[in-house]
Amino acid sequence: MNKNRLNFLLELLNTPSPSSFEMEIQKRWMKEMENYADEIRTDHAGNAIAVLNPDAEFKVMLAGHCDEIALVINRIDEQGYLHIDKMGGVNPKAAVGMKVTVLGSGKTVTGVIGVNAQHHGGLKGDFGLEDLFIDCGAKSKEEMEKHVQIGDLAVYKREPEVMMDRYIAGRGLDNRTGQFIVGEVLRRLSEKKLNVGVYAASTVNEETNMGGAYFAAAGIEPTMAIAVDVTFATDYPGVNKQKHGDIKLEGGPVLAKGAPINRNINAMLEEAAKSLNMDVQYELTPRMTGTDADKMRLTGKGVPVSLVSLPLRYMHSPVETASIQDIEEEIELMVEMIENMTGNESLNPLDL
């Protein structure tokens, strides 16, 4: 990945995009995609969709969600402390002692998630977000309410880091990496002659309800769709591989196998990987994928779906970690597959 594209990825990762408040990152992504797409679409959910070859009958949809998990303010007490709930799958233990950016209705403010000192007993056993609070330095409820309202959102104040010129670590790689990947696939395909239409969708709300994917797929009516997301890497200490599988960074893109997944699409992805001499890994999704694929699959008359995932360490923490090489290979895999499609491919598994 060249420096220019890496910097764009880091810019996306630096842009707050909590679920339900993705407007800023969507505008930045659309501005970039305008340079390569034949057209840009939006919808009432807040999705951003870049399109190549819109007149093609065969439509390939790629969905990477741009929203990140966040904290939501549910109470401001008399001393001006902010009490919080979760917007998505926040781990309370990862939140302790973190700095946050509160996206206030009045202005953006910095805060810290306070914690009882160990000298005073600390935090014991299991605890939830209801046991934590944000201290923004306000002295009263009245002062705090000048900047923040109930329902405002906060994200960890954490910039992405490149480690050993190999890995990226930071908050919200789940799934701004997916947003970046689908856009980068479209950018590279914009230089090719295509037989199919390509719809790169930066979807919203995946971390909370996956409604963005439903809106996007219902509007596009794709012939097939691929969710581009992250999955759990198991290559670090303390993970039970017998229970959770063997997925590692720099092991290649991860393809899902299970009842929701269309075997014909997977076969095309595997053929593309073979052409590139690229390793792939597998994960099992027996009943549901837990990604945008589940909602896209059930729109309209039904959409054949697949799931291509990026191995990710430390899911839903402020230090999610992924491999730059894996990101690059995932892009190359989908470019290779789509570039070689004729538009006459059968997606009926009985035709395999």
Describe this structure in words.
With 352 residues, this protein is an alpha+beta fold. It folds into two domains: 3-68 and 171-351, Aminopeptidase; 70-156, Peptidase M42, domain 2 (Elongation Factor Tu (Ef-tu), domain 3), CATH 2.40.30. Helix content is 28%, strand content 26%. It is built from ten helices and 17 strands. The chain has helices at 3-14, 23-33, 92-95, 141-144, 173-189, 211-220, 241-244, 263-275, 292-297, 324-339, and strands at 39-42, 48-52, 59-65, 70-76, 82-87, 99-103, 108-114, 133-135, 153-156, 161-163, 167-170, 197-203, 224-232, 254-257, 281-284, 305-312, 320-323. It has an eight-stranded mixed sheet, with helices on both faces. It has a six-stranded antiparallel β-barrel with strand order 4-5-8-7-6-9. Strands 10-11-17 form a three-stranded antiparallel sheet. β6 (99-103) and β7 form a beta hairpin. α1 packs antiparallel against α5 (173-189) and α5 (173-189) crosses α10 (324-339). The two termini are 35 Å apart.
